[in-house]
Amino acid sequence: MGRFLIGADRSRHSWFTSGLLSVSKDSTITWKDGTNFTGVSSDWWNEDTADRTNHLIYSYKGDTYKWNLAETSLEAAYICEIDRAEAFRIMVESRGIDYGTNYSNPNDIPRGPKIIKEPEDLVIVTGESSAFIECIAMGNPKPTYKWYREVFTREEVSWKIDTRYTTTNGRLTISNPVDQLDTGDYQCEASNKFGSVLSRIVQVSFGVLSEFPSDDIIPQNVRAETGAVFQCPQLHYKPAAAMRNPVIHNDFIAIFPTSVLLGETISMECMAFGSEPLKYHWTRENKGMPDRTTFYSNNRELRISDVKLGDSGIYTCHVRSGYTWMSTRKSAYLKIEGFIHCTAAKLEYRVQDLSIDHINHYL
């Protein structure tokens, strides 16, 4: 059991057993089912064991778990014991982060960060005054963000190295972008006191399309009813035209209305660019879609009518290119808000209690 706890309990809690020590450490241990255990080696006990009570616990000290004695008033976990022949009766439940908590709002449960919106590759058109890449993470406490460039050297990108960079929550804005300074691979890190997570690596590059040359095209004399070839001046451009893997636009997933109340119809829309045809589908984390869900516009738009509190959750738009067979996805958190409902009867009662002058004043 000690070896199991070393791997399973990273917080190094103390664990009650059903064992009772009769008189001292050298005496018999009696388990709750009435069986006894004798011949306990002194190596099985923590050095600070004192004969305060006879309740047997596992406690961690040094680098391992050993037996100890504790008061019954100690707040500690309890090891559930069952005969090996009856172990098949144990039901393994699917437990979420709210299991065993008293939080009525799941958003209040302390948790480490989880990225719900991954950043996307960005092509900056030469001459733009600013550009941004963004990631969004959930967590409690609210995560803080850092951006890194050239992920193997882990160079943090912030105003400390260049005032053109601004980080607002998970959004990194680049003012007056410069090809030689800003091209590269970027990665977002979201952190709180429980840990950190990293986003996917994205590439920031620059797109250039030069002007047609100002030189006049040399005129050609052509005989009637004969062919001629006119060459279009070659332009400098990058990136080169090629098959494009799907990329979901920065402004999507879009949710309408932005503040969703009980009973309303909501719309979640996804928009991607890439080599056609693009195929869309939606999923919901850990749950199926509400039974009031309908899809429109080649599954780009998801609508839920008469929304309930239980419809809250993380929804993900998946897009696959039928030409390149590559896919991408993006997630958004849908939060349903309740409201205070005032009945007409109460309103009429208040009006009846007012004088005519007061009613005219309110009207």
Automatic annotation (TrEMBL):
It holds the Pfam family Ig_3. GO terms for molecular function: axon guidance receptor activity. PROSITE patterns: IG_LIKE. Keywords: Disulfide bond, Signal. GO terms for biological process: homophilic cell adhesion via plasma membrane adhesion molecules; synapse organization. Residues 113-205, 246-333 form the Ig-like domain. One of its GO terms (cellular component) is neuronal cell body. The keyword Signal applies. It comes from the Eukaryota. This is Contactin-like. It comes from Octopus vulgaris (Common octopus).
